[in-house]
Amino acid sequence: MEIKEYTISDLESLEIFKSAVWPVADMEHYGDKMPDFYKKEITYLAKEGDTILGYVTIIIDSGIAQIEPLMVAVDTQGQGIGTKLISYIEQELKKMNVHKVWLETGATWKSCPFYIKNGYTERCILPNHIANQDFILFDKML
Q1: What mean pLDDT is predicted for residues 74-98?
Q2: Is 79 helix (H, G, I), strand (E, B) or coil?
Q3: Residue 57: how many CB atoms within 10 A of its CB?
Q4: Whether the bond into 23 is cis, omega within 30 of 0
Q5: What average pLDDT score do residues 5-17 get?
Q6: In 13-99, beta strands by DSSP E
Q7: I want to staple 139 with a disulfide (CB 3.0 to 4.6 A). Which of 47, 102, 119, 132 is the partner?
Q8: What share of the chain has pLDDT > 90, as a percent?
């Protein structure tokens, strides 16, 4: 056996391999409750006139959505813009049959109380994660 990095010359044989193994794995894992496998990225803006006050990007994958990221202009923080953004995307996600939203944020960042206030649950600490900082994984069922 040889292990090597994928190259473009492997494309056809890899696609054939995938088409043979994925249906078996999916049936084993999901049975007749197969998720709708698709991936979509959407960005929503909070604007006042032509001025962007904040934005949130969500990545939807197989019925769950990741917030990546949610940002509000420094001079408008604390005015409810982040809460309006998150409330809006949650309503939009429900329309898309998304059942859960999740995110990671720095354990010492001021975003942690924001997500807790908006109904997100701390699921675990990710020690020594991005840039050697501890992060927290949050989620919320919709």
Answers
A1: 96
A2: coil
A3: 15
A4: no
A5: 90
A6: 39-48, 51-61, 64-72
A7: 102
A8: 82
Residue 35, token pair as written in the block: 């998720």
Predicted pLDDT of residue 37: 79
Mean pLDDT, residues 126-131: 97
Q: What is the CA radius of gyration of the chain?
A: 19
User: Is the pTM above the cut of 0.85?
Assistant: no
Looking up tokens 């044989």, which residue turns up? 13
Pairwise CA distance, residues 101 & 120, whole Å: 9
Within a 10 A sphere around the Cβ of 47, how many other Cβ atoms?
11
Block residue for tokens 């040889």: 2
Run of H or E including 118: none
d(CA 4, CA 61): 29
pLDDT score recorded for residue 36: 77
Q: CA angle at residue 59 from 80 to 34, to 5 degrees?
A: 130
- For residue 69, what are the contacts with CB-CB under 8 A and spacing of at least 6? 56, 57
Helix, strand or coil for residue 137? strand
Quote the CA–CA distance of 73 and 120 in Å, as a whole number.
22
